[in-house]
């Protein structure tokens, strides 16, 4: 109970209300003491009126009047003359004079605390103004013990009342906070537990219902996070299923390609000059396909193997990529332009870089084909002290907004109908494996430009620079 939010709120409410009551306890007791002393002056004044009309008063009557007033003697000052109206023996010397005519709140509170904390039975003189202008002043002598007992009794009643008020207030606040905050928070926690059991189930996503603004904002934020997580988990599951399917396909495809590779090797010895010229390209293509299948089977997951770096003449590699794309069927005429420098030697994995540029050029060709008019795909290069830079530019219609927002996200960044966006995601991962980056420089109605930046030094040195 004490470790719960509502339990702690209940305890704090009781403590704070009690603290507030304690802060007003001293002024209340001081006011009670002042009223007590004023009442003794008023009683003494009434008792003195009974003796003013008689020159002599019976001692028994005088003692009874003083006992009813709770004082030992009464001095009344009228017409500049002080007169001892009623008197009786005083059992002890007067220890203090209390003048109620000029007492400030601070003095009253100080004297009240002093009276409460002083256990001695003392006699005090009290001076004040008579009621109804019945004189200039009135003065009485009285014991402190009855006053102190009355103050203790009053203080005890104040404390008990404060405790009752604190408990009642805390109970009301407890039920209000429990209904408005604790129960809704528990509901959110239960939603989180249910969602955690099966986060892929979209039906378990929380529906914001809280009426409290702050709690509603928390539910809205939780709903957004759960939607993103559910989408990510579904995508991850999709990728896992795709990986398993690709591994199975790669296994059978590798066997078929191995057979095709044997036939391609024999084609190199053909007497037909056209077959002899085409055979090396066919062998290279089949070899890359076999290596890709073996890499997929070896790793069996979405991660790409680390690149096998070597010096590659980039213009020749781009020529192979463009030559392969020229063989593809396209409803529109596409011009392929290679502007890569003959002198550019890049340190990279040739197979992986061919996949990167192949994906970029293929996407460009498909974009131009969907446009319905002639276009061009240009591969150009430049370099500086840190990077080799390769740009793939097309004159297509540009990427749609959804594709730009999810550019390198599998199954969300497809630019054409039926596209999965895997090509760009795979390309970005392969370039990242080289320590470089793949980025979109421009995409509008005039065309699209992708840039591949490969570091000349190590990835660490490029990052530090």
Automatic annotation (TrEMBL):
Question: Which residues does the UniProt record annotate as the domain Histidine kinase?
Answer: 248-458
Which reaction is catalysed here?
ATP + protein L-histidine = ADP + protein N-phospho-L-histidine
Q: Which Pfam families match?
A: HATPase_c
Q: Which domain of life is it from?
A: Bacteria
Fetch the SMART domains from UniProt.
HATPase_c (SM00387), HisKA (SM00388)
| Residues in coiled coil | 215-242
> Which InterPro entries does the record match to this protein?
HATPase_C_sf, HATPase_dom, His_kinase_dom, HisK_dim/P_dom, HisK_dim/P_sf, Sig_transdc_His_kin-like_C
Q: Name one GO molecular function term.
A: ATP binding
Q: Which UniProt keywords apply?
A: ATP-binding, Coiled coil, Kinase, Membrane, Nucleotide-binding, Phosphoprotein, Transferase, Transmembrane, Transmembrane helix, Two-component regulatory system
EC number(s) recorded for this UniProt protein: 2.7.13.3
Query: So where does this one cross the membrane?
Result: 6-30, 158-181
Q: Could you tell me what this protein is called?
A: histidine kinase
What organism does the record attribute this protein to?
Answer: Qingshengfaniella alkalisoli
